[in-house]
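Marked as duplicate of an earlier ticket. Keeping the data here for the record.
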Amino acid sequence: MSEELLITAAVNGAETNRRQTPYVPYTPAEIAEEAERCRHCGAAMVHVHGRKPDGDATQDRQTYRRILQAIRDRTDVLVQFSTGGAVGMDIEERIEALDLKPDMATLTTGTVNFGDGVFMNSLPQIRTVAERLNTHDVRPEIEIFDTGMVDTALRLVDEGLLEPPLHFDFVLGVPGGMGGRAENLEFLVSMIPSESTWSVAGVGRHELPLAKKAIEMGGHVRVGLEDNIYVSKGELAKGSFELVEKVVEMGRAEGRDPMGPDRAEEMLRLDATER
């Protein structure tokens, strides 16, 4: 078991909005404030999406530039960009900000039904994202919504587009994707190379139970308002930081303290020169 626990806070996402919860951040300043709170509570990394002032999703480079700078001005937390954006965005739109060199960025290795929509990631599109990540020397987090996506990631290793050891994030419980069950997490972990690192992002009511399971298995955890807006049944989290606090409590109950950004950089083999 890995002694320390990497906690990633997915602070806003592309879909969560203020009709659902008033606590989701939209603007760069709001995102940075939430990132600082999450870092203070035990997160080593934040996963961010671009949002317009009215909450609409955007992958605009200037929006991401402002988000990255605002976070850097407030805290040393690692910053991970989404390359998923929102359902329906084209691939070039989704990756235009990678030249800003965040600490990490996501790479989803397959197409998945996403509620009533389709999150499209054809193999040529996946290769395009991987190539752009390589161009800008940005370390990928491999986003997995179903089992075939693991096989595709390993295919990209064989093609030379991904360099092991990989870091996987298993996103479970999306309507249309793999269900948020403990046995599904166990199976996915059994598929990846032994030198890999991994985290789990449970969606909705699956978030905290899967976080506990991952901690017990020696993995790592992503939580936040992107994936789940409740800290307990019927009680809105007042920010992603409250969900981070829950995971810290779970981790310490298993003898696993939260790791800081420096330790996360080491584990994930990141280049710290840009921070």
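See parent ticket for discussion. The first strand starts at residue 7 and ends at 10.
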